[in-house]
Fold this sequence. Notes:
Helix content is 28%, strand content 33%. By secondary structure, it is α+β, with helices and mostly antiparallel strands.
Amino acid sequence: MPQRDGLEAWEEQRARAVREVAMRMGLPLGHRVEVCLKDGVILQGNLRAGEVLLNLETFNRGKVALAVDGVVFYCSEIESCVRLD
Length: 85
């Protein structure tokens, strides 16, 4: 049972970290979006964090990986991001 409690605690910690990153970056994580990348690619779908961020004080915004329906890209590649829902 302690292993299950540890997993639940880790999942809650990760969810809090993702919410904090979304607030800091102004991105609608967990929502349906249209993302236009600088190279002209347009993605539509649910915006998710593409990596676990362990230290929110020192994260590099340009190197944060995100994903829309399985397509992974970096925050620095975003030209625009519009919430659709």
